[in-house]
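Annex B. Sample input.
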Amino acid sequence: MTDLPQPLTPADCDLAGYRFMPLDVVRLKGSELASSYTPDECWAAMLLWCASWQHVPAGAIPDNDKWIADQAGYSARGKIDRAWKTVRDGALHGWIKCSDGLLYHPVVAEKALEGWIGKLLSRLAGGIGNAKRWGAEFDAEAIHAQIIDAAARLKSIAPQSEWLTKKQVVAILSGSPPDEKQVAPRQKKASPPDDENIAPRQLDLSPPDSGCDRNREGEGDREGELKTNKAAATSTVVGAGEAERVAAPVQDPEKPINRGVAVAILLRRLGVRPMTPQHPLALGWGGNPKCTDELLQQGIDIARERKPLPESIHPNYLAPIIAELLNPPPPRHDSSWRASEPATDAKARELGITAPLGWSYSQLRDLIQSEIDRRRKQPPAKGAAA
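Annex B, continued. Sample output.
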């Protein structure tokens, strides 16, 4: 039997798609790590925080010295650098071993749980919105259970967290989550979903400003166009304010919904404002086959790191995030070997470089960079795999 504590974050806490990790600079500057350890130890510690943020579960790392040394920049060619012993204590400051065999950092776990709760709330809002829109069944209980579990773990390590006081979280913990009663199947000729103040659409209305032109159907080359327009009606985009009310064609329930309209509806469900089917971004994303619902959801999750619910997300804030997901930047070259003298020495040994006697580390780093650049430009050897 062991007395190890329970894991600080759930086993499915996955923030791998979150590129930004919150950093409380005031808390860090006043911490024991900053005041009691060397800069090399502090840098190695921060690299381990970053590694744990991308690990699953987030906030944890394996209890494996070789893996840890590698993530902290003290491993070369599969071997632990001798300098690792000099920074190991500082790098692992604050980490505790839990009953699942992993090491957890309470502060990183706190931030990870807050991000995880935000991700779950966003997922819940999207599921409820899709259920309303498509009349599909949606079981929110599983997500509620995940939120309750995450909130309990967060309360145990950071009872002062503002995420525990957010309305959505409090409602779920009290057993009365908002919007759950509003999930109902769609009716064939019902009014636009989510807006009880909007009258049902009438299929026999004429287009706006048609005037007496209704009596001229069938004339000339515009006959087909006029007949199409006769089936259109003025409707209001779901949930739009006065500035967003637009004329939209009646959707034939037998035909698949226009992708641009579906994108606008999904984004509005997820808190993007202002957003209509005529918005340039909705049209652009709707016409891009790579821009799936899953990718849009991923973009919203990233945006929620900086704009948690119930704050709305402006389309222009979301646009660069979606653009980067559609066209990911090329991988950045590792430059962690510049972080410390031991890391520079390790990189030199990896490249087979021996510095002349009396050289400074600045000169050695310039030589290493020159060798790296030379190897990148070097054509692949004959017979090498493509």
